[in-house]
Amino acid sequence: MQLSVAVDLWWSALEPSALDYSAGVYLLDESGTVVAQDDAAMGDRATSQWVVDELTFDRHSLVLPADLPPGQYDLAVSVYWYADPQPLVTDSGTLAVVGRLEVVNPIPGS
């Protein structure tokens, strides 16, 4: 049995963009190693079509590894242009931690 976690993000453009960006959503263990990842376009239309200050909903799904041990995991996000997968830099680096997930039991079937 595979378990997944839905990660809901809301974005807003501060200024128009000529590029169409994608978002990476990551589950990081305590050492910062990526244990689950989802990459996709941001929202239901290309970022070059976004209206300044309009909220855009963006859902990602992280499939959890069957052998994921109990513990605390950080949820992190990066934004990048598909033609240059180098993430944009934020105040906290290329990954912005946006939340924390606690796994309290081993995943059933593991």
Overview of the molecule:
This protein has 110 residues and is an all-beta fold. The chain contains no helices and six strands. The protein has strands at residues 3-12, 21-28, 34-41, 55-64, 71-81, 96-103. The strands form two sheets. It has a four-stranded antiparallel β-sheet with strand order 3-2-5-6, with no helix packed on it. Strand 2 (21-28) and strand 3 (34-41) form a beta hairpin. The radius of gyration is 15 Å and the shape is elongated. The relative contact order is 0.29. The mean pLDDT is 92.
* Main sheet: strands, sense, barrel: 4 strands, antiparallel
Shape: elongated
Q: What is the terminal-to-terminal distance?
A: 9 Å
Strand order of the largest sheet: 3-2-5-6
Which percent range fits the helix content?
under 10%
The quaternary state of the protein chains shown equals single chain
| Spatial extent as radius of gyration | 15 Å
Structural class: mainly beta
Sequence stretches where pLDDT stays below 50 over 5 or more residues: none
- Portion of residues in beta strands equals over 45%
Order of helices and strands: EEEEEE
Our count of helices gives: 0
Query: Mean pLDDT across all residues, rounded?
Result: 92
Question: How many strands appear in the DSSP assignment?
Answer: 6
